[in-house]
Amino acid sequence: MEKTTIKKISDQKIHSKNLSETKGKLENFEISFGKYEVSDLKKALINDKKPFFIPGHFIVGYKGNDIFSSDEGNEVRLQRPTDAIIVESENKTSPEPVQQQRDPFIIMGQDKWQAVPAEMPILQKLFVGEPFLPPHSVILNLMEQTEKEKKEKIVSALAGVNIEMYSPDRFLDNVFHEIGHLFWRTCVRADEKEAFQGIFENLKMSAIYEYEWERSDVEEFFCTIYKWYMKSLFINNAFMNILEHEEPKGFALFKEILDRISKDRILNATWEINQKAIKNYFHPRQDVSTGRFVRSAEDSEVVKNTIVPDSAKIVKLEKGVEYRQGGKDFIIPVKNNKIMLETPMQKAASKPIVYVDMDGVVADFRAGYKQAFDRSADKDDPFTIKQFVSTVPHFFYNLPVLEKGAELVEALKDDYNIVFLTSPMDEIPECRRDKINWILDNFGVYDVIFCHDKYKHVIDDKSILIDDMGYNLKPWAEAGGTAINSSLKNSKILKTIEEAFNPEKDLKTQLDKIKVNTEPTEAQKESGNYKKGKIVFKGLDIRIENPKGSLRFGFDENGKKWITRMKHHYGYITGTEGADFDPIDCFIGDTNGSLAFVVNQNNPVSGLFGEHKIMLGFKDIEEARAAYLANYQKGWKGLGAIKQTNTKKLRKWLKEGSTQIAF
């Protein structure tokens, strides 16, 4: 039954406990009335798409284990013969408005034949919406056979939505076979294709395979079963008997697909019927007298019992919760195909967001495409790519990881909130789910957003997108964001991101702006209360006491005064405590790199470890060593070991490690 008809009945709110009264309200519908076994009611609902009434409920869905669902979202368990009214169809003589006509499945295109095939009236019985047909119309072209088709013995072909027929011989068989190809690509799920592959790998000779090519691959195998099934529907039921006998496993699996499609359509119809209640729940009205938002108990019950169909598109994955498209203007949180009654509260991200594309940035689409089809994704047009990709189950889930992309994610994850922003192939039903599972398996728990117009996520120049496609990067930049081509070296990408978020955090820029009191009084020195330069470098909060060029002096162990002119900025890292119980000292160069060097400074008299000196902003260990010695008097013997690390590990050590012993 059409979902519009189910909605028409549901809107009447006929839930009488007296079924005789209910019958009187269904005068515009053909009905059957009686006591039915539960199995008969399941068959009527699932196979024949006929809803039914029982006392107090209008049943429109089935959840399994003899549990049915009403149009109001209530669960009803039926375990014994039950009085029911089955709604067979709408009475066409009814004064009610005529339903919108169904779209024809076959649209005639070119006709270069002199005579229309006699079987054409059979094809004219096909309408879009039947479970055994693809979800849209096809164009049938009757073409002249050129030398190419004659040479290659081509009698029919599928090209997009066009079915090209080159010979009237076995006309109906060939049309059904080509429709089967379209059904395989648009209706059969990836897991179902894998199941067919398992049967195909153990295929035996059978009378239903009239040509060798019908057994050449799993798709041709499926189309042969499809062809025989269609012949049984529109020519003679005896063809089904042959099919059941000759290919029982393949036909059983095919019937499971049709059952699944029927159930999906009932689920989708119920989903659409419940849209208003779902929207009211997530966008409740406000009571102006109290200021509170009010949800009706009826809407809450509908939401509680609604199963979200797989056809409801995943808009994003956030903190493990799927957000799916509810209607045109709202999304809903979903877990395990059930609506979450409360939207999960998310804390504002403490780290800045970086949007990262998937295909071509972290997932090696080109390599996967080449491996699967021996073709170049850069040379094929988008339509051809989608046609090929649709033939491989879980194509996106099985893509290899791009090593460069994995290294980039590893470098970003500690300092930034990575959100994968990807454009899905919506023509492939499992694409969004496979992309989510790919991220989970290869990188762990990250937020994923599906979007074709990525530039809509731009807020300002701190909105970062790393992508490999110009048609995404250009609109992003035009919208005011920072667009970064993933073909750049990772070091360049990281530098661009850091400069975008911290335009004033460039090391040299900060150092040029600092102001330091280089002549504090003895009392100020003792208290530390005098003006120092403040900079932030790689997450380290630093105070500059002696800027480059200033004089630094003190007294050695023997009481002898020393003095040196600083070749580099010198200060300490706040929030730390060194072996001398003061904040740990550091020298600052002028390189923005992430390398860090720890000097284990020894007591120049005893030669034992005394304290640490951190060298930041130097390009390598030799430059750091030279810089350290340049800031001490000639013959200085305090340099012990100097160890190379990076600022990430340095921060961890300063926070968690022992700073009282040598690094």
A few lines on this structure:
With 663 residues, this protein is an alpha+beta fold. A hairpin with a 2-residue loop joins strand 2 and strand 3.
Task: Describe this protein's structure.
The structure is a single chain. This protein has 663 residues and is an alpha+beta fold. 34% of the residues lie in helices and 23% in strands. The protein contains 22 helices and 30 strands. The strands form six sheets. The protein has a nine-stranded mixed sheet with strand order 16-15-14-13-19-18-17-20-21, sandwiched between helices. A seven-stranded mixed sheet has the order 22-23-26-27-29-28-30, sandwiched between helices. A six-stranded antiparallel sheet has the order 1-6-2-3-4-5. Strand 14 and strand 15 (331-335) form a beta hairpin. Mean pLDDT is 85; it is low at 94-100 and 345-349.
